[in-house]
Design brief:
alpha/beta; Rossmann fold; six-stranded parallel beta sheet; four-stranded mixed beta sheet; globular
């Protein structure tokens, strides 16, 4: 069966896009992961949840961050942001699990109001292996929009014994969070290396966002 992993679900915007792109339906399993508790609770109240539970073979929605290990992690939740000298109360984009804890987004200039939280996280390898051990013919498709954590999560995925089950991956890259820091060029190099490694496995890799 096909298994669609939505890493960084937010309010199902990416899932809506991929329902059309892959014609997802009753024969497909969908797993959504959103670490931001506020966004998770808002999206759980959406009528879309009831619809997804009906139209997919399996629909799971977790308030969990996908990382390179299972446990807990510090989450930099954004409870509003200043944009063009105006505070936007419902700005939640860019919330992340990064050690560097960026206080603004160089892409749009938003200055984050950061509220640290402790949240649960799950190892990408554990997720993929659990799928394949229950479905030896699994075909896995991934959308990855995890606000900079792709630089630790994707190398772990590439090292998985089940990497051959991944058919394509759509990634939004966030090297911009290191812009102006000594690590910025390293992140660009890491990004290019990760893409090359996916391609070496024959896995289609696309830019998302």
């Amino acid at each position: 069966m096909r298994h669609y992993l939505d890493l960084g679900t937010h309010k199902f915007e990416g899932l809506e896009e991929f329902i059309k792109k892959f014609n997802l339906g009753i024969n497909d399993n969908v797993y959504c992961f959103e670490p931001n508790q506020q966004i998770y609770e808002i999206s759980r109240q959406s009528d879309k949840v009831i619809m997804y539970e009906k139209i997919f073979h399996t629909f799971k929605h977790y308030n969990v961050a996908i990382m390179n290990y299972t446990g807990t992690i510090s989450f930099n939740s954004h409870d509003g942001a200043w944009l063009n000298n105006t505070f936007i109360n419902d700005y939640t984009m860019g919330s992340n699990c990064l050690d560097i804890n960026p206080n603004y987004d160089p892409g749009n200039g938003a200055i984050f109001n950061i509220v640290p939280q402790k949240i649960n996280c799950m190892d990408i390898e554990e997720l993929v292996s659990s799928i394949v051990l229950n479905d030896s013919d699994a075909e896995i498709y991934i959308k990855c929009d995890i606000e900079g954590s792709e630089f630790v999560v994707l190398p772990k995925l590439l090292s998985s014994n089940y990497i051959s089950h991944v058919k394509s991956i759509y990634i939004e890259w966030h090297e911009r969070f290191w812009y102006g820091k000594p690590e910025y060029q390293n992140k660009i190099n890491e990004k290019n290396s990760i893409i090359a490694n996916f391609e070496n496995y024959g896995i289609q890799t696309f830019m998302h966002g």
